[in-house]
Every structure is written in C-alpha cells, then in structure tokens.
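Preliminary data (for renewal application), P-hydroxybenzoic acid complex.
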Amino acid sequence: MQKRRTQVGIVGAGPAGLMLSQLLAREGIDSIVIENRSRAYCEARIRAGLLEQGSIDMLGEAGVGARMHKEGLAHDGIELRFGGQGHRIDIKALTGRNVMIYGQHEIVKDLNAARIAEGGQIVFEAGDVRIHDFSSKAPRITYTHGGEPVEITCDIIAGCDGFHGICRPAIPAEAITLYDHPYPMGWVGVLVDAPPVSHELVYSSTPRGFALFTMRSMTVSRLYLQCGPDEDIAEWSDDRIWEELELRLDGGSDHKLPKGPILQKGVTEMRSFVCEPMQFGNLFLAGDAAHIVPPTGAKGMNLAFADVRRLSRAAADFLKRGRREGLDLYSQRCLKRVWRAQHFSWWMTTLMHSFDTYNAFERRAQQSEREYVASSAAGAKTLAENYAGMPWAWDED
Ligand code: RFL
Ligand code: PHB
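Predicted structure:
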C-alpha cells in the first residue's frame, strides 16, 4: 500500500474540488484531489453556463479568470417571455452587477491547467475511493490507482464529489437531516452549432411547457425544453426538438430561431436537495455533494464556489493559526446562502414551468406572479438581486 500525506484531502475534481484546491494553494496549504473519472471526461462534461458576479470576481482573484474575461460573454439582463411577449429584466440597472456566460467545462479546463502548472496534485481515474476515520484528527482516504492501493492521511477531508458521490452517504444517517424535493419534470438539453436567438438569455413560459434559450458563445447555442420527469432522450428526435423549440419560443416577429447541427443532447432531472449540517467531524461537504437546485435559477455552480470560498478560509484559519471556529461554523454560515438559492431556484421553477397538476386557480395565480415580476420595479428587483447573486457582504461572518 502506497502511503501519502496532505493537509486537505479533496474528493472530486468538479468546480468545487478544483477551486478549493486552487484557493488553498493561495493560502500556502497543501491538498490532493482524488477524482474517479478521467481528465478528458471531466473537461468535456457540458453543464452550467452562467456565472454570478461573485463567481466572476472569485475566478479572477484565484488567478484563473484570464480566459473567462477574454472569451466569456458579459450579460446585463435577461428576457422573460410569456403570453407571446418578451419582458426584459435589466439586471445591471437594478443591481449594479452583471452575470457572465462561460461554460463550466471551460472553467474546469482552466482550473486543471492552473493546478497542474503550479505543481498541484490531482489524481484522475482513481478506483474504489473511500473515506475513513473522519471523526478523528487523522482522517484517511483510500483508493486504487493503476491497480495499486493508495492511502492518504490528512487533517480534513472535503467532500466535493457531487450529488452521487460517496462522502455524504458515509455520514451516519442520524447525524444529518435531508431535505428532498423532486419536481414532476425534467429538461431536455441540447448543444447546437448555431448562433443564439438573442444576445441575452430568454426564459420562455408557454402552455406547452418551459424553454430556455442560452448559449456558450456567439456561434454555439445551448437550448433546454421542459419534459417529463423520467424521459428517454431517444424519444426526442432532432425534428421534434426543433419543432418544440419554435413553438415554445412563441416569438411573433421579433425572434427567429437560428438552426444548426445538434452536437449533444441529454435529459436532466430536476430536484431541490439540502443535507444539514454540511459537515461531520473533520469531513466538510461542498457544492452538489451537500445541496442541489433545479437549473432554472442558474445557482448550482455558483453555490459550490461560495461554499469553497468559505471552506478555504476556515481551513486556513485552522491549519495556519489553530483557530477552529470557522470550521465549526462552516455549515451554519453556508446555509444562509444555500437556502436563499434554494428558495429562488424553486420560485423561478414554479414561476416559469407548466405543472399538469395545477388547477385553474393555481394557473391564474402563477400568471399573475409572472405579470407582477415583469411590470413592477420591486418584483423585477427581487428577481434581479437573486439572479445576479447576493453579494458576499450579505452573509459575511
Ligand atoms: P460536480 O460537478 O458533480 O463534481 C463532482 C466531481 O466528483 C467526481 N466524483 C468522484 N470522485 C471520486 N470518487 C467518487 N466516488 C466520486 N463520485 C463523483 C465526479 O466525477 C465529479 O468530477 O459537483 P460540484 O463540483 O459540486 O459542482 C456543481 C456543479 O457541477 C453544478 O451545481 C452545476 O452544473 C449546476 N448547474 C448550473 N449551475 C450554475 O451555477 N449555473 C448554471 O447555469 C447551471 N446550469 C447546471 C446547469 C446543471 C445542469 N445539469 C446537467 C445538472 C445546467 C444543467 C443542465
Ligand atoms: C446554461 O447556459 O446552461 C444555463 C443558463 C441559465 C440557466 C441554466 C442553464 O438558468
């Protein structure tokens, strides 16, 4: 058995794990990231696209913002469409902040490159990853690499291994409360080699269901359609996707949907989930390992970054100065932002999707809420403030 030692053992090389490793390195703290997939797989996984102002700033401060600033698309607003009309929400005018379109897989590439260039340690294609003794002062991670067993001893373990990872299930069930709220729908997502329909994102609510028109660049579109909860992507031919997108753009004359080859397609489930507390002994969960949101509010990766920003500071305070307060209060402090994003994501989802179970009253009340957001400065500002992301000062210690 090969034996290794580090200060922070990080399980998972997604945005949370890689950013944590990068922030810790900036504090002079040593970490090893253990990932069960290959680097190529992680760098090709198409997921999030929208960064809040706080995440944009954080990538810059972490020394990985150069390509994002060059290639990312800064957006000042979004369009909500319903009843055949578009309503622009001017995020910049309402909050003084903006958002950025830059693919999660590009961020993962930038973080991998930066970590590896600085001598950071990331183990890809690790097998049988397990965590042990995390209630003690010397937690361990074991895994196999190239068929060889390896053991890492560390001071703390960061569980950054996503919703389906091994860290959260390792916590004794009686020590945590799980809040789980599935939705009766999913999203079909496609990546298309064609320019976006509009220079800003369009969130469209129609009686046929919701659609989102977003992008990865000015030549590649990312399009989503509300579908049933467990749908098979094989049921969604390219023709069916285009027909549904046209109908749900509900565009009248002001939008013409550009078409092109579909490069990738898949179905995403919709769920709200929180694990409380997000820690046990010397194991700290961050990102999707601790909580997930439906993608309507574009909050998942942004929350993952907020968690690891806090965790990196708390870990530095403990490992450099022996002060444990930040670690002890990690979960409590994270959860204020987590629950704000949970409510906002649930609210955006219920605002814009069609629910088969709604009665006539619920449909009219939902319509009234959409009209309120689009026509009242206070309604629009609430959406804008949450969409751009609450500033760091809002939940600073
Ligand atoms: P990840 O990205 O799931 O990374 C976890 C990593 O852990 C690895 N892993 C393991 N490693 C070792 N051993 C094991 N046993 C392991 N099990 C798993 C995995 O291979 C992976 O590399 O979690 P992380 O880092 O917390 O990041 C979270 C984000 O990925 C997620 O919240 C976002 O993608 C959510 N999301 C969005 N977030 C935004 O902020 N803005 C958006 O615009 C946005 N759009 C989206 C989204 C998610 C979507 N899908 C597909 C769920 C749009 C979609 C369609
Ligand atoms: C994306 O670009 O993939 C995206 C943007 C905004 C969302 C969800 C996904 O709300």
